[in-house]
User: Which sequence fits this backbone?
């Protein structure tokens, strides 16, 4: 039986991915802060008859001092973890984070430091075993710092750079690392944003992730058109770009 | 690319909000609810704004709109929380749609105990409207428990035994007593997902009433009625009766092997707003003449559940055929005592105005115990008709029909309504005061409000009167 760990299991995309991944041949481990909510997700998967009841484990990305223990508890429970999907992330509106550094710090610690902390431990185990899959959900916002969202964006830029280096390091070990860069997705994180044509459903993103895993992609923009949008955005000369309101 | 956030992120994003009829339209913030915690946060941070739970927006009028305030979008809350396979008891979050339930549970031999004519609404919305279908009782009769979040932030469970006042005020209470978080519903066992269908032509109103009286014991009945027929043929219709087929009823062995098939009928999509002119009395009359002309006196068939229960779902977004101004549905019920006289009078009045109704449905509710205080079903006959809003003339006709309905002791179904006046509504629902007392008990400060609640006075007596920003597009017909 394949074991799949989902970090940040209460995120909208994680919930969608869990539904698509669950099967009689998969043991899911849901990890996140709100265990009560994860229990509901687990109940849903069980009622749908998709497979064994998922394990639920408390996990706080910000509390990096607990990650060592968390990872050893996971390994004690399932011996081998075949796939790790990292969905957790925090976003506060730029204007508020500019005023209150605590909010900016929370994003940086969750999205970057927390991710590095847990994935380094995962990577070490998988490198030794010479097998595994790590999927990190970063963001298009990490491709270039924009005035409207650079505090969140820079945390994701850090994550993207980290994943890129990790991918290279794990090539000899045969461990696949996929960087996912979603655009706007209908999730609790974007609850306060005006919805437009650019918004995608969490199910669409989850399907895209699974397709990219199958195709052994390194980096995937979801939905696909973000690749072209970001291609334009990263090529605008800085002298011009700094004057845009993006 | 620019990320626009509202000043308070917790209270959602600005959007144009409307019902299935696309009339009236409103502007409010929409906050997606992935878990009850987000609803709880909205209660804490609402600072003077009112809240309203919303599902798929399949009620026709302003039932799920909350102009200038906040709609809590429960569609992301779509998890099954438990299933007792012995009793067919399903516990599901409010945002689960009927379609999701069918797709998951038909293969296991279970069907919805009640279903409206579309499978796209959410379970929570169905409870709030206490929906009915082709069988005889509304959904409240099949509920074991409701799990709710109340205005004071408390989580409660209600049922016919536990907090019965809250339970009955919530079934049919249009979402105004509190937020429905999850629902425990008793499904019905089926041997096959096919129906034994019988269609019988009735040449006039007397005939169709007689057919309904004869069909008392039939599990499911409904009639399709030609509202443009006048004089001798007034009320000509086709009675549709059905019951779930047993496995042995299925003729071919292939069907018998696939007895519990999930329907995947091809879907047509109406791409854009049709020119509003394409449906007028001549095109509808021509369609009806062909349909009734071609229908034999009696047909029998084995039909899949999609074709039987959800004929219109095969045209996704069929509401767009009524053009940009939108449509209204007029669904009224005349209690048993005056049913025939009342339906006849209204049919004559409607026919006389020459307003075309593409769809008209007639049905009888048999004897039943009293339901929720403002729930629609009582013993009698109801008729449901669709009209394009067009230039708004229809809304004035509807007000005159309201008076006639009231004269026969009848009532209008709130899930379809967009136009009723508060005084008329009050007279139609004699148990309104009983409901208002419950509203006052559980939501004294009117935290949960809708445009319909403001229009019909479904507000806590003595509570603060919530403000409503005048919306640009939400013009009413008057």
Assistant:
């Amino acid at each position: 039986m394949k074991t799949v760990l989902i970090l940040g299991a209460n995120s909208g995309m994680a919930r969608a991915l869990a539904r698509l991944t669950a099967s009689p041949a998969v043991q899911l481990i849901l990890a996140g802060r709100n265990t009560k909510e994860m229990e509901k997700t687990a109940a849903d998967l069980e009622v749908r008859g998709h497979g064994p009841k998922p394990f639920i484990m408390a996990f706080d990305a910000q509390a990096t001092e607990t990650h060592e223990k968390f990872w050893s508890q996971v390994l004690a429970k399932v011996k081998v973890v075949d796939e790790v999907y990292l969905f957790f992330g925090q976003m506060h509106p730029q204007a508020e984070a500019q005023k209150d550094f605590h909010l900016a710090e929370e994003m940086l610690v969750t999205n970057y430091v927390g991710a590095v902390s847990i994935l380094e431990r995962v990577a070490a185990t998988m490198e030794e075993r010479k097998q595994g899959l790590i999927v990190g959900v970063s963001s298009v916002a990490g491709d270039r710092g924009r005035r409207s969202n650079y505090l969140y964006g820079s945390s994701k830029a850090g994550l993207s750079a980290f994943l890129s280096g990790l991918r290279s390091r794990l090539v000899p070990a045969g461990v696949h690392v996929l960087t996912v860069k979603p655009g706007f997705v209908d999730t609790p994180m974007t609850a306060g944003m005006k919805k437009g044509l650019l918004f995608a459903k969490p199910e669409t993103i989850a399907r895209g992730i699974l397709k990219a895993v199958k195709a052994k992609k390194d980096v995937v923009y979801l939905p696909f058109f973000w690749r072209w949008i970001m291609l334009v955005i990263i090529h605008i000369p800085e002298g011009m770009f700094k004057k845009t309101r993006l | 690319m620019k990320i626009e956030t509202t000043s308070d992120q917790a209270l959602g994003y600005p959007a144009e909000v409307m019902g299935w009829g696309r009339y009236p339209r409103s502007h409010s913030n929409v906050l997606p609810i992935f878990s009850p915690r987000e609803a709880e946060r909205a209660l804490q941070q609402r600072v003077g704004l009112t809240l309203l739970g919303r599902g798929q927006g399949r009620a026709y009028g302003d039932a799920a709109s909350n102009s200038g305030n906040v709609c809590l979008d429960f569609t992301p809350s779509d998890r099954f929380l438990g299933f007792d396979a012995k009793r067919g008891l399903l516990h599901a979050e409010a945002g689960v749609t009927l379609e999701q339930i069918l797709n998951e549970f038909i293969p296991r031999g279970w069907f919805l105990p009640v279903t409206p004519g579309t499978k796209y609404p959410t379970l929570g919305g169905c409870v709030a409207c206490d929906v009915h279908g082709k069988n005889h009782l509304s959904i409240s009769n099949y509920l074991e428990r409701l799990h709710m979040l109340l205005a004071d932030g408390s989580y409660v469970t209600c049922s016919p035994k536990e907090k019965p006042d809250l339970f009955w005020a919530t079934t049919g209470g249009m979402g105004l007593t509190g937020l429905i978080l999850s629902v425990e519903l008793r499904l019905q066992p089926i041997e096959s997902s096919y129906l034994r269908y019988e269609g019988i032509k009735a040449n006039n109103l007397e005939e169709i009433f007689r057919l309904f009286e004869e069909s008392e014991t039939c599990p499911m009945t409904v009639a399709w009625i030609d509202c443009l027929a006048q004089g001798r043929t007034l009320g000509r219709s086709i009675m549709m009766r059905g019951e779930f087929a047993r496995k042995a009823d299925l003729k071919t062995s292939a069907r018998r092997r696939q007895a519990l098939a999930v329907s995947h009928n091809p879907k047509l999509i109406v791409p854009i707003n049709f020119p509003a002119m394409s449906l007028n009395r001549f095109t509808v009359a021509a369609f009806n003449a062909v349909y009734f002309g071609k229908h034999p006196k009696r047909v029998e068939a084995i039909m899949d559940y999609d074709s039987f229960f959800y004929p219109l779902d095969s045209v996704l977004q069929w509401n767009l055929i009524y053009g940009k101004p939108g449509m209204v549905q007029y669904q009224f019920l005349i209690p048993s005592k005056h049913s025939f006289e009342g339906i006849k009078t209204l049919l004559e009045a409607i026919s006389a105005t020459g307003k075309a109704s593409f769809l008209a449905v007639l049905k009888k509710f048999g004897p039943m115990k009293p339901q929720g205080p403002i729930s629609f079903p009582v013993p009698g006959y109801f008729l449901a008709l669709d009209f394009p809003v067009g230039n708004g003339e229809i809304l004035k006709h509807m007000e005159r029909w309201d008076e006639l309905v009231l004269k026969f002791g009848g009532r209008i179904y709130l899930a379809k309504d967009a136009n009723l006046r508060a005084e008329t509504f009050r007279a139609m629902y004699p148990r309104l005061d009983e409901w208002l007392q419950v509203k006052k008990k559980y939501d004294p400060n009117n935290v949960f409000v809708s445009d319909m609640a403001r229009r019909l006075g479904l507000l806590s007596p003595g509570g603060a009167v919530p403000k409503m920003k005048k919306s640009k597009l939400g013009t009413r017909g008057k």
Summary: Chain A touches chain B through 29 residues (CB under 8 Å).
